[in-house]
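Extended Data, panel c. Modelled sequence:
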Amino acid sequence: MFICLVQHAKARSEETDPARPLCEKGLDDITKMASYASGLNIGINEIFHSPKLRAKQTAQVLADYLKPAEGLTETGGLKPNDDPAVWMERLKVMTHNIMLVGHLPQLGKLASLLLCGDADKNVVAFQMAGIVCLKRDENGAWALQWMITPEIVV
């Protein structure tokens, strides 16, 4: 099983727009990333995203390119300060490839929890619109497979 973790793309500031939709750069970055990812044949079955607008918009662009069979699902446990243990438990019973679109610090804590068992270690340097792919082996252990960021995708 693979899980792709995606920090939402760059959003407008709260002062500019309290709803914080994606800004033009954020939309450009996630479109570029989604287009690139669509050529990787990663086979995402479902994309889960936080209820915040910037995550929902990021997830929608990814879904437009990756076309997950089970579509998009808004879900809890992916807001910035949510407990990463919630998703660690959910992942234990999942068997299909998924993508989670959320926020820091939650995604960073989840990656650290899965990779080294300690949510407070900072083992992955997330970037807005970046995609981090982890793989679970037959024994339930997670390992980093790859990571791409807008800066390296042309």
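The longest strand covers residues 142-148. This feature is highlighted in the accompanying rendering.
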